[in-house]
Amino acid sequence: MPTVTTLEDYKNRFEQALLPIKKETLDPQLTAFLEKQFGELEDYLRRFPKESFWTILPYVMGIDAKLVLFIELIRLDEFDAAEILRIIETDYKTYTKELCGYDLSMEPPHSLIFQVL
Predict the structure, then answer these.
(1) Which residue from 9, 16, 41, 50 has the highest number of Cβ atoms inside 10 Å of its Cβ?
(2) The dihedral of CA 34, 50, 53, 59: what is its sign?
(3) Structural domain total, the chain
(4) Are 72 and 18 in contact (CB under 8 A)?
(5) pLDDT at residue 1 greater than cutoff 60
(6) Which residues, 6 or more positions from 114, have their beta carbon under 8 angstroms from its beta carbon?
């Protein structure tokens, strides 16, 4: 897997993941959600030189978790737009922990990947 080195690389990866889904058929709520997440990510990255890496990283990790959940859930036909957004907002802070095999009651090891806001 090639390394992501720019915001455009990052966004293009998500666009590629959406290719099997006709983007123009997405519910407007879901399109707005995607645009909001990419907009917030751009805002955080623009502030990087002005703010501490340690302050911004948890928010960037949160946006990444939301976007990965979005890609996973959009492929399932069983959820409508409202349910997809509810699941994302409910689960994104613990998504990486679960992905790494940790139960929600377990304390994960110290790592930046678990620093999600």
Answers:
(1) 41
(2) negative
(3) 1
(4) no
(5) no
(6) 96, 97, 108
